[in-house]
Write a structure and sequence with these properties.
The chain is mostly helical. Helix content is about 60%, strand content about 5%. It is found in: Endoplasmic reticulum membrane.
């Protein structure tokens, strides 16, 4: 450093001698590093006068040097500009109380600033304002991260669930994460619910801007570039992991409002439910069966990419340690089943399709089906709630059994017989359905006849079945009197023969 530069350092203020290393500006290695501020340690000593100087000196500065003060001022100004630019780009500016009523804004490290920010009590009773300030804090922290550095849309479309589930929380230190989620845990479900919807709206607005830009919309091209959404994803992930039940409260809105529906929004929905599942597996599976599984019965069911995303999430949930006992113990959440009868019917159909309808994903459904079936059928046998569930399941199983799909018929008839064993009222229900679907009744009766030894052991009280079979024989005799044989079909004797066979088995 030349003499003028050395003297310039002496004139710089302490603030100008601060190094700033930005945690949230993406480096060449693709990582974000911790924010820290280090004062330059320098021992200031009086500079000796130049040995070969012929002019007079004042404080070590040669008076005869041409334009010496201009050089000092220029150096100082350059240093000042660099520091200010770095501060604007990356420093965390957090408002904290100072003495008196004034407030000052100073750069702080994340670990230091977070507790002070969250400890403020200015808006103690206004949780919505507190949450907005919380979001603003992270917004400033990540202000320098551009959309190019955080291409969330591309990542969500191309990466697997196991890879994008930790984006972007993997870049948050454990200390900051713990402080933040502890603070979020003290907010009410109502306030967090509004906050989650606000965050989702922001993400979907950004998604819409990306889509419009891809279509070459003139309106979008005239707007400023989209800001990075990394802060929104960070706070949304922390909120859902800390209080996953918020999603259940928002389920009616998410399921019914078109704003939150659509194939283009599916990756975000999967990411969101994955965050909640990390906080509570039961909530994760509940949202999967109520939001994602129904998509497989719609237009998106033919899209292998979306089907794969939906399967990845449930496979991830079921693969967690002790997932089975946790989910069985939580089979009923807030009075509702996490795998309701309607979801179980859909699950049967996607797991046991017609031979021509099998796809690569079918084997994956077959792998997760047993535990999901176990959860769907879990409950206290004989209870009022369980009796209602068995009657609902019996209806859907009876219908599926008579549709002529071999694998589906076998599984549905098994479920149908299980319902009979759980609830004696199901026999009365079968009696009412009998003539309306003779094909299904034939399949169930044949199964009872073929597997009678096993069935009779599991169901020692057969009085209800005996009375139901008597009713069948009477109804079918009357049915034959009014229906020509051609309408009944070639196998018109099957229902009567099978009914008689099962009835005889009971008598024996």
């Amino acid at each position: 450093m030349d003499e003028n530069a050395a003297h310039a350092d002496r004139f710089l203020t302490e603030e100008e001698q601060m190094y700033i290393h930005d945690d949230y500006t993406k480096q060449n290695d693709g990582e974000w590093q911790t924010v820290s501020y280090h004062k330059r340690s320098r021992k200031h000593s009086k500079l000796p006068p130049p040995e070969n100087s012929s002019g007079s000196h004042c404080n070590g500065i040669t008076a005869t040097s041409p334009d010496v003060f201009r050089s000092i001022e220029q150096y100082s100004e350059d240093r000042r500009q660099k520091i200010l630019e770095a501060q604007r780009a990356s420093a965390l500016l957090v408002n904290i109380p100072s003495q008196g009523t004034d407030r000052r804004s100073i750069p702080m490290t994340t670990e230091t600033a977070m507790p002070k920010l969250l400890a403020e009590s200015s808006y103690e009773t206004q949780q919505d304002i507190q949450l907005i300030r919380f979001a603003d804090y992270f917004g400033r922290a990540f202000a320098s991260v551009s959309s190019a550095q955080f291409p969330w849309l591309k990542t969500f479309r191309e990466a697997s669930v196991s890879k994008f589930v930790d984006i972007p929380l993997s870049h948050i230190s454990e200390d900051v994460y713990k402080i933040a989620v502890d603070w979020l845990g003290q907010r009410s479900h109502e306030a967090l619910g509004s906050f989650v919807l606000w965050s989702l709206d922001s993400i979907f607005d950004d998604l819409a801007s990306h889509q419009a830009a891809a279509k070459g919309s003139k309106k979008v091209s005239q707007q400023l570039p989209s800001k990075s959404q990394v802060a929104i994803f960070v706070i949304l992930a922390m909120a859902l992991r800390r209080k996953p039940d918020v999603l259940i409260n928002l389920l009616p809105i998410i399921r019914e409002n078109p704003k939150y529906q659509g194939q283009d929004k599916l990756p975000v929905t999967v990411w969101m439910i994955a965050q909640a599942s990390l906080g509570d597996l039961v909530v994760g599976l509940y949202m999967w069966t109520h939001v994602l599984l129904p998509i497989l019965s719609g237009k998106s069911s033919s899209n292998p990419q979306y089907r794969d995303l939906i399967l990845q999430l449930v496979e991830r949930i079921l693969s967690f340690p002790k997932a089975r006992p946790i989910l069985l113990n939580g089979a009923i959440k807030k009075g509702e089943r996490i795998v309701p009868p309607s979801a179980f019917e859909l699950l049967m159909r996607v797991t046991f399709p017609a031979p021509s309808g099998r796809v690569k994903a079918t084997e994956r459904f077959e792998a997760v089906y047993p535990i999901l079936k176990e959860i769907a059928l879990a409950g206290s046998s004989g209870s009022k709630a369980m009796n209602q569930v068995t009657q609902q399941i019996l209806n859907s199983a009876f219908k599926a059994a008579g549709e002529g799909v071999p694998d589906l018929s076998r599984e549905a008839s098994d479920v149908f017989i299980w319902c009979l064993a759980q609830n004696s009222e199901c026999y009365k229900q079968w009696d009412l359905l009998y003539l309306g679907n003779l094909e299904a009744s034939v399949i169930v009766l044949r199964k009872l006849s073929d597997e009678w030894n096993e069935y009779s052991v599991k169901h020692p009280n057969l009085d209800s079945l005996r009375e139901t079979l008597k009713s069948f024989m009477q109804k079918y005799s009357t049915y034959q009197l009014y229906k020509p044989i051609l309408e009944i079909g070639e196998d018109h004797q099957q229902p009567m023969a099978l009914t008689s066979a099962v009835y005889q088995s009971i008598a024996d």
